[in-house]
Amino acid sequence: MLSSHFQVVLTFEHGAEASGIKAGQNVAFDVDVDHGPFPLSSLAKGSLAPAMAAMKVSLVNGEITKPLFDAAKGHSPIDANIRATYDKSIATQVVVAPASYSDTKTTFAFDGGEFNVSGENSLLTDAQINGQLKNIVISQDSNDVKIYSDSMTITSTGNKVDDNITVGHADVSLNKIRVNSRGKDLIQINTFTGTGALALSSDKKHINYTQEYAIKDLIREKQNLGSGKIALVLENLDPVAVRELFTNYNAELSKSIVANPAPGKDEDAMGEVSLKLLTKYIANIQKSEPVIKLPISWKNDKGEMTANVNIAIADPVKAKFTPGSLTESVDQNVKTITANVMLPVDVITYTAKQVKLAEGKDDASAQKQAEKDVNNFTTLGKMMDLISVDEKAAKLDFEYQQGNVVFNGKEMTAEEFMARGGRFLQ
Question: Using an 8 Å Cβ cutoff, are 32 and 8 in contact?
Fold first, then answer.
């Protein structure tokens, strides 16, 4: 059984100014390889399956990496154990050392962790990642508040469909969170999750992107205030246009600054250059007429409150609009806008009661005050003609299309709707 050792050195020939890396500086890795068909390190772990090689890769303490070693108290901040098989699949175990990382304001510390990466062909396009960091502590020098979490869990999958489209999802969760100030827990959260997902649209040519944040069980003073989520959904995006936005925009902006350095020192001038480039690439994204959705929800033991905003984007070349109208600029870029809010009376009353209980009121007082607050809210909303109310729920419904508005079931022109809104600004 053959083993070998070597070092891989990555040199930054021109440096990386944005990251503080000077020209000629490098990052080195120690690599220990046990060659197949039966790598010794794999056999030591009980794996009898043949493999091309098993490697251990460790970061080397150097000029650039010294802050990472300092944060990990002299240990290698990460070690990777890589197993490459004959069917071209790769499995990697990444061990993260306990560390405490600080910038000028915030400290992020944890007790170490482990991540597993596996994939076929290319890990850049076909990969699965899962793992966690343990005992997270986040603090800021400017206040006494600290955030504690039992663990941070990460899962991710990626799959390249073709040269332009990669689909998959990534989930990051902070589990068993406590927000603490001067030794007292202010709030507790069972789980806070951030999710990003890319998926093919129904025509298999475009992509849908979803970014969602969710809280499960928000607890204050032993009162469970409920769970909720908010998401941004972008549907029917042209993947080529999106890629051009992120790659060509940055390249052209840098080229523009090099060609004419003056705007780079003037914030207003820089904003004009940036806006001009953004307008150019966003116009390409508009050609596929994507849809923007913003769903929000909050639920407790009594039910769920919801709010939704949907905006159907128009391709300016094909858009229908009335020249010279009040809504001309909107109609050139937007086909429809819809919004609705549903607030079940039982749900908002229960939420208000839980807040009062957390503030120290007894059950009877909390219930009475909650009912009073909700009644005042619905009465004011009806008086201002902002919501419709029945015995079960308070609602708001809005729909806009080409200069016309339907608001809570009443049809009117955009001018009439704007006039109604003007009443509240006087």
Answer: no
